[in-house]
Amino acid sequence: MSASLQKGIDVLKEVIDAPVASFFASCVHCGLCAEACLFYTETDDPKYTPIHKLEPLRRVYSREYTLLGRLGKMLGLSKPVSDDELEAWSELVYDSCTMCGRCSLVCPVGNDIVYMVRKLREGMAVSGHAPQGIQEAVKRTIEIGSPMGVKWPAIQHVIKDQEAETELKIPIDQPGVDVLVLMSSMEVINYPEYLGALAKIFHKSGVTWTLSSEASEATNAGIQIGVSDLAREIVARIVNAAEKLGVKRVLSPECGHAYMAIRWEGPNLMGRPFPFEVVHVLELLDELRRAGKLKMKDQFTTPVTLHDPCQIVRRGGVLDAPEPLLRQVVSDYRPMPDGNKWNWCCGGGGGASSIQEPAAEALRFKAFQVKKRQIEASGVNTMVTFCSNCRIVMEEAVDHYEMKTQLLGLTELLAAHLED
Ligand code: SF4
Ligand code: SF4
Fold first, then answer.
1. For residue 230, how far is its CA from the centre of ligand 2 (angstroms)?
2. Does residue 159 sit in the same domain as residue 202?
3. What residues does ligand 2 touch, defined as CB less than 6 Å away?
4. Which end of the chain is more exposed for a tag (fewer CB within 10 A), N or C?
5. What pLDDT score does 79 carry?
């Protein structure tokens, strides 16, 4: 057995805790999780059944922690997990799992598949079976501070552009303000107007805020690859910057994975509660709406539908803010079937969009077919969302299928119709 495989198996043994053991023990093999997973429904391939994606972890659990498994191991009746098997499972654990959590929602015995995928990724990463694209994103995040290699001068350039666009000052490193604003590199590169939209909304509603030159990136590639030490290092940058500035809140941007990383995984990774509150941008905007501080001058009249990002809505728990905010700015909202917590994933979450191999891309497009049906059922050509990763993944898929769908970000839409 190679040293890296041994390390990977050791990590898998370590990460098997009471919840994982009880999940494996309680699975009744009903197959309901398969029907909830977009990779299964769009391919009909049983290898994409969620519980099957965890087979290497189940094997280690069985061999090490069950009576029969230990007996089999002693008598040489069961083989340890091999390098070839882990390599074959890389596609199932990374390319075809976006950690969307839809399977966990339907499991009749409450098995949290995402929790287990996250654990299996720990062993996959250590044994060298994480995809190249995610490994590179992690390296760039650790060395440069951004999974896409965006450096602070590039962000300063965006800041200047948005200041010119909005005629508003964008604060940097301001201590004692209400909110430290985080961004994702995807927003900086693809949707820089998000920053200008925040500047307009905060100026109008009296929220004091700042960016940090030491921690602007919200995403956490360490979580996506499944290495807790790296994930902790990345979260610590934000925590240190927020504590240094003494802000009351840290604002997670229009990025689903970032919200899960800083809001839910962050305190566990750091091993302590934060002295500040973490809120998703929609939670803050809805708070402003309810306080009467987010009034519109007019409404967007084109019929729209809404894509609910998995990590913000189903997994993140931001269930009630999106629709009222959308209704605040649009006059013709047409909900799609299976909305809110039942929504289907864009196909690119959990790091899947960083995997550039042609087979992974083809699988993403195939998985998108369920979203395509949802959009078509809504009967409209404009879709609003609030996750930059979902947005870019869906823009690529919309082009691939030559659909007429136009995508809009909710924060920008609200800012564009904000009362003068
Ligand atoms: S988390 Fe989503 S993508 Fe992953 S196995 Fe479950 S349903 Fe499929
Ligand atoms: S839905 Fe739950 S119990 Fe049924 S096969 Fe999947 S993990 Fe097992």
1. 31
2. yes
3. 27-33, 51, 107-109, 111
4. C
5. 85
Phi, psi of 156 (to 5 degrees): -60, -35
- Give the list of residues 6+ apart from residue 348 with CB closer than 8 angstroms, or none: 98, 364, 389, 390, 392, 393
Do 113 and 184 share a domain, yes or no? no
With 80 as the cut, is the pLDDT of residue 1 above it?
no
- Provide the domain count of the chain: 3
Domain boundary pick from 266, 290, 314: 290
Tens of pLDDT, residue by residue over 28-87, are 999 999 999 999 999 999 999 999 999 999 999 999 999 998 998 889 888 889 999 999
193 pLDDT higher than 80? yes
Share of the chain above pLDDT 70, in %: 100
How many CB atoms within 10 Å of residue 291? 9
Residue nearest to ligand 2 atom 2, measured at CA: 107
- Residues 117 and 42 both lie in one domain: yes
Kindly state the average pLDDT of the residues 350-366.
Answer: 93
Which helix (H) or strand (E) segment holds residue 309: the answer is none
Number of H helices, E strands in the chain: 23, 7
Q: What three-state secondary structure class fits 320? A: coil
What is the whole-number distance in angstroms between the Cα of residue 343 and the centre of ligand 2? 19
- Compute the CA torsion angle 353, 354, 356, 358 (nearest 10 deg): -30
For 406, phi then psi, to 5°, come to -105, 140
Together in a domain, 217 and 350: no
Binned at pLDDT 50, 70 and 90, residue 364 comes out as very high
Q: Is residue 297 part of a domain?
A: no
Domain containing 393 equals 305-416
255 and 341 together in one domain: no
Cβ within 8 Å of residue 151, ≥6 positions away:
144, 145
Q: Is residue 47 assigned to a domain? A: yes
Query: Which residue, judged by its Cα, is nearest atom 8 of ligand 2?
Result: 27
